[in-house]
Amino acid sequence: MKKKLCLIVSMCLLLLGLSACGEDPKKMDYNGKSYDDLKSTSENLASSLPEFTDQQIDEGIAYYEQYGDTVIVGLMKQWKEIKADVGDFVKLGELSVDKSGKTLTTSQLMDFTGRDLTLTCVYNYLDMQITSVTLDENYSLGEKMQKAAMNTLMGLGTVFLILILISLVIYGFKVIPYLEKKAKDKNAPMPEPVQAEVPAPVVQAEQMDTQQDDLELIAVITAAIAASEGTLAADGFVVRSIKRRK
Which end of the chain is more exposed for a tag (fewer CB within 10 A), N or C? Predict the structure, then answer.
């Protein structure tokens, strides 16, 4: 029980110590600059922008580009792009200061009739020189949700489009071989006609029929010669050859 009480007391003291360490940003010293100094710089920049005409902005960009002042040139170019969308200047809002490591950042709110802006100045904390100045448009919760929904839809649409393209490519792997085979068959030379050969058994049968006819002819001639000689026996006759007369 005593250990639990000691632990609770220690936690309370720790919380009280942390709260005591917190200082008011308006009373802190920022490497030689006070909160009022930072506020004055931000308010001078913010209040001067709405007073510039388009001609003065172009002249200012050309002037500071000669001296290589990229911070002011970038700020004026940003203001030229968005000034038509924010409407008329109303008033300046609060200034917030945030220090992180070797960087100090101030954010000045600017109220307009169309859309509010935030002027952000980034300082190098070692010498308190401004390294960048930007203008950011402040969107309402509904606009942020709408923008997020549009980004989500675009992302999903891109994914489905890629999947469709992959499916078409895979399907093409099946169609390409068929088209190649069809093209080869179309360009292939026509086969030469094959002459029909007479089967060997048919030729042998014709030769046997011819030999049989010759034997019958020999028998008839022999019988005729024997009859003309007056004898019925054909033992003394030998047929050497048979010649047809034309």
Answer: C
Say which DSSP state 49 is in: G
pLDDT one digit per residue (tens) for the chain, 246 residues: 555 545 554 554 444 444 434 567 778 888 888 999 999 999 999 999 999 998 999 999 999 999 889 999 999 999 999 998 899 999 999 999 998 889 999 999 999 998 899 999 999 999 999 999 999 988 878 877 888 888 999 999 999 999 999 988 888 777 777 777 777 777 766 666 666 555 555 555 556 666 666 667 677 777 777 767 665 555 555 556 666 665
Tokens of residue 208, six digits: 């046997």
Q: How crowded is the C-beta side of 22, counted as CA atoms within 13 Å?
A: 5
Distance CA(82)–CA(43), nearest Å, equals 19
List residues bridging with 104 in a β-sheet: 99, 123
Q: Report in angstroms the alpha-carbon separations of 75 from 37, 114, 129, 159.
A: 20, 20, 16, 37
The two three-digit tokens of residue 151, written as one number: 């980004």
d(CA 84, CA 3): 66
CA distances from 74 to 71, 85, 91, 138 (A): 5, 18, 23, 19
Structure tokens at 91: 């008033």
The overall pTM is greater than 0.90: no
